[in-house]
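Hi there,

I know you've been waiting on this one. I reran it after we fixed the sequence typo, so this is the corrected version. Both the input and the resulting structure follow.
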Amino acid sequence: MEKLNYAHNDTSAGEKKSGTQSFVKLKIDEKMQKLRESAFERRIPVADDETLNFLLCTVSAVKPRKILELGTAIGVSGIAMLNRLPEARLTTVEKNADFYEEAKRNFKSFGVLSRTNAIFGDAGEVIESLDGGYDFIFLDSAKAQYVKYLPTLKHLLNKGGVLFADDVLLYGWVNGEVEVPKKRKNFVKHILEYIEAATSDSELITSIINIGDGVALSVKK
């Protein structure tokens, strides 16, 4: 799971990264919040309040029964989605061995292991072997590979299904809010290629939403 090293904002402060007031009231239980806080303390990349809340809003509306997640980390987002959707099943892919093992323990601890197919491996390789039929795909793995994954993910997604791609405006680099460091310009180029591909694809309806580090939300026609 290729992730840049976020400095997570203090979720108890009610502040967005920009310093503006956030009105999000994330509805998760104490056990889940403790897991998130542990991840933040260890600088493990998990979704901030606004992104996780929007993810849960989206799955609550879509009500997917079959979910694919690329980028398990330690299982926070996967557990949150399964807790919200008691009939759903999750296939989740992680290439970091330590994260993968911890995620499996967390799935068991939260009582969702039986509804989870956790796969250890590279997302780009794994998705080529999947059968498809997914109602919802949460894309949160190697950002530079998003555009390469898109044709396969579109094939795996049911008509009317939703592709939720996280971190597409990362650090404000992509939309020009923050100047891009020279060593990251190629990285940003790949994300812009994904945005262009997703927004111009005739089979997708895509909106780019400035929540967290940016979400590209696509619905397959």
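Quick highlight: The chain has one domain: 11-220.

Best,
R. S.
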